[in-house]
Amino acid sequence: MRITDCLRLGFAGVKAHKKRAFTVVIIVGLLFSVVTAGVFVLQGLENVALAEMLAPTDGKVLVISSVDTKVCGEDCDIATEVAEIKKNIAQYNGEIVEAEVSQTTDGMFYKLKEDMFVSANCEGDSEIIDVTEVVVPLEVAAKLAGIEMLERDAKVTEQLDTIKEVREKTFGKVVENEAGEKYYIAEILPSGVHASNLSFMNIGQNANPLDLILGQINTGISQNFIISSAEVKPIEDSTGEERYSGFVAMEDMDVEEMGIVFARFENVAAAYDYYRDKVNYCSETDRIFNMCGKDYKYQVVSAVSNPLTTYENLQNVWLVFKIVAAVLAVIALIIALSTYARLIGKDMKIISLYHALGATKGQIRMVYIVYLLMLSLMAVGFAIIIGLALAAILSAVNMESMKQVWSLAFGTQAKEIWLIGWNNLIWWLAGVILLTAIVAVVLGNGNFTSKELAKKMK
Q: Number of structural domains, the chain?
């Protein structure tokens, strides 16, 4: 019997038992669709949250490593410790980014020696000569433009209106501070504005199950960066007093003298491996209680938003989800296995006919493997379609709420947020469903022998 014959007979089995076959597909598919929907939603949330945080740096992760002076002590050799930090960064394939820090009347700004940011501006002022170009969080942009931000206890609608106003008046535009210094806001970085995480409780919605995940996504705090400094020139204002155009720094310092090193990593996973190194890692709880590990010496944080902590928190969520998914999958597999076994048990007359036509036990077994694999493939397809549908419905139902939360938490422009992401865990689930078909045939091996068949036919 050729493989084409097995395929033909397997398809004939599906066609002959149409009602029974599709009932099996629906039952098995629905059981697994719950898990696939969870995978789509969780991966979708991780994708959109990290994409928001990493958009300004085109997916790269900019981290700040600093010597923890509490551990290093008063006699700390900063130069030696900085050299050790650089060596450790290189071991994790990170790239050192040279930087300076400028202390100004508007706060502290970092100057990177390399171009790290992707300007999102498409409609900004075309002439920015003699204007300092900066990349800053929304609250700093508001401060530079002289716009007052609301407190976190203000009404959500008022907070959203303020965020919109600040973006419209600053993003891609030249603003002037109280001292008359002009800044071009090249980009607004995602940073905690009115919320420290993406929980729906930030907009007054309680008991939303998505908060189990959204509450783990920390928005963090972005630093201030100078892309280019304008030429400083003395000018006279309308009163005849002399002032300066351009950017006037009170003090410039090399960050390494302060025990700080900037580094760039290709993606979150690479940066996270560096972050979790024993000399860098100490959880917030351990730091509060002064219980960091004996090897801990350096503090590592994200320079833009908080992808490192978010990635770590979501890894913990994934661990819990995989345990729950494994339990659900085992229950679904037991039901699928028993269902497949009953299908074989009800086909005694057809199996007897195969024997009468001269088919061997191995050939009959192969026909049923193909038959059940077809059912499993249809169940996989059905589970993925239903999972996608459930994830899409969940996204649509919570779309407006998520837009508000994203704006409050990141200071970003409202946009559609779809909670649909692909994770290879789905392939594993599909493989397990297909394997169930083979296991069912192996366990029901006795049904394919002529001797056993004769007993059951009496």
A: 2
**pLDDT for position 154:** 86
Of 49, 12, 347, which Cα lies nearest the Cα of 190?
A: 49
Q: How far apart are CA 265 and CA 60, in angstroms?
A: 6
What is the DSSP annotation of 330-397? HHHHHHHHHHHHHHHHTTHHHHHHHHHTT--HHHHHHHHHHHHHHHHHHHHHHHHHHHHHHHHHHHHH
Interstrand relation of 99-104 and 107-112 (parallel, antiparallel or unpaired): antiparallel
How many Å from the N-terminal Cα to the C-terminal Cα in the chain? 29
Q: Rounded to the nearest 5°, which phi and psi values hold at 250?
A: -70, -35
Comparing 43-57, 189-203, 282-296, 350-364, the range with the smallest average pLDDT is 350-364
CB-neighbour burial class of residue 414 (10 A; exposed 0-12, middle 13-18, buried 19+): middle
CA atoms 254, 255, 256, 262: torsion sign: negative
Average pLDDT over residues 428-457: 71
One domain, residues 376 and 289: no
Q: How far apart are CA 121 and CA 184, in angstroms?
A: 11
**Does 296 share its domain with 317?**
no
Q: Tell me if 88 sits within 8 A of 96, measured CB to CB.
A: no
DSSP labels, 287-310: HHTT---TT--EEEEESSS-HHHH
